[in-house]
Amino acid sequence: MALQRMDNVGIVVEDLDKAVAFFLELGMERDGEATVEGPWVDGCVGLEDVRCDIVMVRTPDGHSRLELTKFHHPSAIPGGASAPNALGYRRIMFAVDDIDEVLGRLKGFGAEPLDEVVQYEDLYRLCYVRGPEGILVGLAEQLR
């Protein structure tokens, strides 16, 4: 049997409402929510007495989803380094129509480019911003 697709990327956050609001402002759409707990969750994630709230958001084309999770029990633990060159998960990149317009909308969340909006050849305008709780988000505007 062949791999079908990547279903979602999971991100654990402390402030679920703020994270959801950020990704909705970016242009994602709410795709469901639930509180999960019980032996099936414990067995799946390898923890005991799990209880967490999950909100799924998806891109408007329906192809990509994020699972935003707030752990109530056990408590979330601090992650590793958040530098763009640290090992492990580093960022989520989104294709956008107008990078300047998106940056303007995300300013209300304190999202500013890490350095500057740059142009890669005549193909893309690109930048990284920090979302809620330090989530690194890349924005890419295709120029042609």
Structural write-up:
With 144 residues, the protein is an alpha/beta fold. The chain folds into 2 domains: 9-73, 2,3-Dihydroxybiphenyl 1,2-Dioxygenase, domain 1 (Roll), CATH 3.10.180; 92-142, 2,3-Dihydroxybiphenyl 1,2-Dioxygenase, domain 1, CATH 3.10.180.10. The chain contains 3 helices and 8 strands; from the N terminus they run βαβαβββαβββ. The chain has helices at 16-26, 39-45, 99-106, and strands at 9-12, 29-37, 51-58, 65-73, 92-96, 118-120, 124-130, 136-142. The strands form 2 sheets. A 4-stranded mixed beta sheet has the order 1-4-3-2, sandwiched between helices. A 4-stranded mixed beta sheet has the order 5-8-7-6, with no helix packed on it. The longest helix has 11 residues, at 16-26. The termini are far apart. The model has no long low-confidence stretch (mean pLDDT 90).
Q: In a nutshell, what does this entry contain?
A:
With 144 residues, this protein is of the alpha/beta class. Helix content is 18%, strand content 36%. It folds into two domains: 9-73, 2,3-Dihydroxybiphenyl 1,2-Dioxygenase, domain 1; 92-142, 2,3-Dihydroxybiphenyl 1,2-Dioxygenase, domain 1 (Roll), CATH 3.10.180.
Number of helices: 3
Number of strands: 8
Classification by helices and strands: alpha/beta
Which consecutive residue ranges, at least 5 long each, have pLDDT under 50? none
For CATH, the homologous superfamily of the largest domain is named as 2,3-Dihydroxybiphenyl 1,2-Dioxygenase, domain 1
List keywords for this structure.
alpha/beta; 2,3-Dihydroxybiphenyl 1,2-Dioxygenase, domain 1; four-stranded mixed sheet; 8 strands
